[in-house]
Amino acid sequence: MTKNNLTRRGVLKTGAGVGASLAVPTLFTGAAWAGYMNEPMGSSVTLGFNVPQTGPYADEGADELRAYQLAVEHLNGEGDGGMLQTFSSKALEGNGILGKKVEYVTGDTQTKSDAARASAKSMIEKDGAIMITGGSSSGVAVAVQGLCQEAGVIFMAGLTHSNDTTGKDKKANGFRHFFNAYMSGAALAPVLAAQYGTDRKAYHLTADYTWGWTQEESIVAATEALGWETVNTVKTPLAQTDFSSYIAPVLNSGADVLILNHYGGNMVNSLTNAVQFGLREKMANGKNFEIVVPLFSRLMARGAGENIKGILGSTNWHWSLPDEGTKAFVKSFGTKYGFPPSQAAHTCYVQTLLYADAAQRAGSFNPCAIAEALEGYEFDGLGNGPTLYRAEDHQCFKDVLVVRGKENPTSEFDLLEVVEVTPRAQVEYAPDHPMFAGGALGTCNPGA
Amino acid sequence: MDAIILQILNGLDKGSAYALIALGLTLIFGTLGVVNFAHGALFMIGAFCAVTLNKLFSLSFETVDPTRTDFLGNPLKVKTPYLVDWFGPEVGASLIDWAVPLSILFSIPIMIGIGFAMERGLIKHFYKRPHADQILVTFGLAIVMQELIKHYYGANPIQTPAPDAFRGSLDFGVLLGFDPNVIIYPYWRLVYFAFAALIIGGVFAFLQFTTFGMVVRAGMADRETVGLLGINIDKRFTIMFGLAAAVAGLAGVMYAPINSPNYHMGMDFLVLSFVVVVVGGMGSLPGAVAAGFLLGVLESFASMNQIKSILPGIDQIIIYVVAIVILLTRPRGLMGRKGVMED
Amino acid sequence: MLGLNKKDSTLLLIVAAMVLLAPFILNPFPADSAMAQFNAGYPDLMQRFVIFGIFAIGFNILFGLTGYLSFGHAAFLGVGSYSAVWMFKLLSMNVIPAILLAVLVSGVFALVIGFVSLRRTGIYFSILTLAFAQMSFNLAYSVLTPITNGETGLQLTLDDPRILGVSATADGGIPVTSLFGMEMRSTFTLDAGAWLFQFNTGYYFCGAVLLLAFYLAIRIFRSPFGLMLRAIKSNRTRMNYTGLNTKPYALAAFVISGMYAGLAGGLMASMDPLAGAERMQWTASGEVVLMTILGGAGTLIGPVLGAGFIKYFENIFSKINEGVLHQWFSFLPDGVENGAVWVVEHFVGPGWHLTLGLLFMLVVTFLPGGLVEGGQRIAKLFRRKSTEPQDGATQSHPAE
Asked: Given CB atoms, is C279 within the 8 Å cutoff of chain A?
């Protein structure tokens, strides 16, 4: 294995190469590309799976890692192939990627930008990883995406929901399959209007950091467009564990809907506290008081137990979907691990497959070739219906699920039921939408 | 007005958690002179005693229900708790329902045991060592305890509900002459407050009215002289450690229904409980309790929208602002004694 | 040499040699062998060793000499990082002005916080510093987002208004940090048979700074000023009775150690232009405390060893996964292999914290003087003749 130097001359040289290739829009051949960062020379190719293994999101990270291991098995032709059989692209042959066996290294992001970047760097510098993927929070995703752009490898984001990841912090080397806060709002609002009426007064509790803000902004915009009024938006500190002093003022605020822009442990606690304060039995303005959790996660919903019953929210994907891709994935994951995959696991599995497929189609591991193969790519059979990887911002556009906490779960995994599959057209937006403005993709960087 | 009363209730409720943790911490600080960074972990272990009993009660056997299918399309395995099978659905279900209060009994011997083991096995060797070494060893221990819990229970929070009888809220406003449904407060939080008051009262009474307590108080004031009097301080220190661990554990058990326990909840409380103890003043039990309630109430007030609109972000830092103001105006916190951990 | 006595010069030379040869020393295993997992000689980790070494050396000037235990030192590291990144954004990609500003700003911060906090001693001092640092962290994460970019961390963008230099390079990328044209990230790779050695410009720049910082620390330790600080530690009241005001000395130590932290923060941002709020959290402050105690508080080399120890576990042990373990134990029979993997996997990968916690306990229990004492004991085994304790440089002084 040989590593390439990050010298200025190398960058300039490749930069020129890229320009030349772009000018000639023909099919790629591996030979058209000059050297690039961590070019795999041997019989194998190394991917870097960078997930939280310690800290509050460790369980989510563990589920992501399971999905990655499954994806590697399927790429290498082991196991039952999972979604490879339902994937619309048939480029992958089950013999690795471009005939090279897929190997992987793992790291711990600790859900901290610094630690995540350190871990990603060690994968690139020490293990020769050609692609980094994973993560369970937007702060980490943006930080690692920035690093991958500078280092010249592809970043396939894991679970990251902030508008910024493909908005103001988008990067040419970064790709996101997961949905975002804007889509949550666009999908959720019509359902909320249908279920709870258009004459509602909403009170927002929002985690006081960038993801929380983008979600609050998105949901406020979407619900106000349907006639809802926003009574108040209150920021809650990141480290808050007891939300009682934020929930109590909701009681007499005149609001009849509480929207919790929280994720993970924050969500579990704020929801539990809201239920403790009797908000679910409350009547306000002559209507039933309602609670909404815009971003649901089944793993975390377990921590909230009974409290999530009947509560509406949105997710990227759920294992109970009826399509063939979902069934194939749930079957191979469930058979291997004994329980159904989470949405984080799904998005990570799909991202790995998409990367592999792009490399296969491009005929090269060069980040610029792969980026070009992914940009504007239409595919199907990976669980969310027909999906587009938009070229302008590297965001996937696909159907979004509106879900509700199930009243009579049959098992500890059966916590959510799908209320509506919001079609893709309804959650699309222009690349220069104000909520996503302010950044630029820049040009792809192949490193070396 | 109603908003202020609600925030006072919230503050007292938060304060009782802070006070209980700080009480245990200051027992170890004040009597033994040990900086115990594992105290938050003891609180966490207490909460997981409740989780464990809940799990034990819900231990189930599986029967196959051929009419329904699981997520893979196989026949669904239905779980029935052994308790329900043995005692019938009613007794069994109510036992599971009451798991959290019952785990008070379950946790006391466990926590005292852990406290004894910690003191005899580890802390004992560190009485004469610098505080820095104590920090390192107890921090290491806290990490180990945390990781063990994470290994068995995972990293996600685990729902541990209060008994059905305590779900719902008390209409507190009516008692004070407000309209109905203006000031309502969850039963379990009121229970927590009462429980904390009971434990705090109990610990004070124990130290005030028993010979053992007298010796310990003497030991806090002047350890050397008590030793010179031929009193076996060592044994009493072990017992004090067990007591402190039990107080932390009970605080955790009762806290489990308020917020679902997770393995790092101890670390979330650790820094805060040190701030509370120091603001209260080193070596002062009443100081720790008073500081706990003071910080709880002020934290609740700071999160009111009216205050946040004047001082944005004040709820993020109120605890630290108060700590700085108090420590600068009163050199030894609220009620600290001279010479304890001042150098 | 350079105004140092013989022992100190030797120590400095040893450290210099270690810094220079680190790419070899830290990469003892061939790149394709199973043991390559334990290699730490890649640029990012070597930079981290050195930067956290500087941070810990600075912390030790305060804690090791005066006995004041600051629990908020990470705030200065964070402030340094932010200043440096802002310098990259506004002025130039040259690391020198960025680092200078980082040191300056954190020095001012330390002066203000130190002036207030040093009115109290002991645990009261610790909690005051903790409170200031936690305030900085919480505000940086939320209200101060326009300056700090909150959760995401302050990053360079393509439209930074850089006065000296370009906003974006010709091929549309963000320019990289450099020292008068020498890029911090450029790496020269030496392919020596089965071994791969990486020599990184940024690492050697950090290494040079470390040597400077280390030299300065030795001079402070050996100066009358250092002696005064030690006197504060051993008995402050007595010092006050002699009519001497100790506070200016303690404050000077606090500011110096805050500037060391700022230097470390500036270097961190120079190696990787991102500044995150987590750098200021109490866990980060706690980490440098642990590094110093683990290595041996009050010794010159101890904090550097402690920093390396913790960073090694964080970066190397967390990356060992089940697949790697199966590779290692593949020579065993199947059943035994699975058993061995099952046992070991609790201590690596997701379980690396457990290993770290256990090692903290073991080291502090059996080596009261920290890792330095471990080194001394080993040295003693080899040199049984000279049992006399070495003074100064490597001898451990208990923290309090």
From this structure: yes
The answer to whether C253 and C57 are in contact (CB under 8 A) is no
pLDDT at A11 over 90: no
Q: How far is CA C187 from CA A196, B149, C24, C373, in A?
A: 60, 43, 14, 36
* Cα–Cα distance measured from residue A145 to residue B184, given in angstroms and rounded to the nearest whole number: 47
Q: Which CATH architecture has domain A182-315+419-425?
A: 3-Layer(aba) Sandwich (3.40)
For residue B343, is it within any domain?
Answer: no
Q: Quote the pLDDT of residue A340.
A: 92
Q: Which residues contact C1 (CB under 8 A, 6 or more apart)?
A: C9, C12
CA–CA distance, A71 with A92 (Å, rounded to integer): 12
Question: Is ipTM strictly over 0.85?
Answer: yes
pTM: 0.90
Q: Is some CB atom of chain A closer than 8 A to the CB atom of B158?
A: yes
Nearest residue of A to residue C40 by CA position? Answer: A126
Using a CB-CB distance cutoff of 8 angstroms, which residues of chain C are in contact with residue B316? 138-139, 141-143
- Would the CB atoms of B323 and C131 count as touching at under 8 Å? yes
- For residue C144, give the chain A residue with the closest CA: A209
Mean of the pLDDT values across residues C380-384?
82
Which residue among B260, B264, B305 places its CB closest to the CB of A232?
B305
Q: State the greatest distance between any 2 C-alpha atoms of chain A, in Å, as a whole number.
A: 71
| Interchain pair B341, C142: CB under 8 A | no
Q: Is residue B152 part of a domain?
A: yes
Whether B140 maps to a domain, the answer reads yes
Residues of C in contact with B143 (CB under 8 A): 353-354, 356-357, 360
What residue numbers bound the domain in which B216 lies?
Answer: 2-55+104-329
pLDDT at position A97 is 94
Are B71 and A273 within 8 A, CB to CB?
no
Suggest the residue from B6, B71, B295, B311 to mutate for an interface test with chain A (most A CBs closer than 10 A): B71
- Indicate the average pLDDT of chain B: 87
Closest CA to C294 of B291, B199, A352, B143: B143
Q: Rounded to whole angstroms, how far apart are CA atoms A284 and A290?
A: 9
List CB contacts (< 8 A) between A371 and chain C: none
Residue numbers in B near C282 (CB within 8 A): 271
Of the candidates A241, A272, A331, the beta carbon closest to that of B72 is on A331
pLDDT for res C1: 67
Encode pLDDT of C118-177 as tens digits. 999 888 999 999 999 999 999 998 888 888 888 888 888 888 888 888 888 877 788 888
Tens digit of each residue's pLDDT (9 = 90 or more) over B236-249: 888 889 999 999 99
pLDDT given for residue A15 in this prediction? 37
Q: What DSSP state is assigned to residue A309?
A: B
Q: Is residue B323 part of a domain?
A: yes
Q: Please state the domain extents for chain A.
A: 8-179+320-398, 182-315+419-425
CATH of span A8-179+320-398? 3.40.50.2300
Residue A86: closest CA among A294, A330, A277, A403: A330
**What are B24-71's pLDDT values in tens digits?**
998 888 777 888 999 999 999 999 999 999 888 888 888 888 887 777
Using the predicted structure, report yes or no on whether residue C310 has a pLDDT greater than 60.
yes
Q: How far is B140 from chain C (nearest CA, A)?
A: 4
Q: How far is C292 from chain A (nearest CA, A)?
A: 20
For position B281, which CATH number holds? 1.10.3470
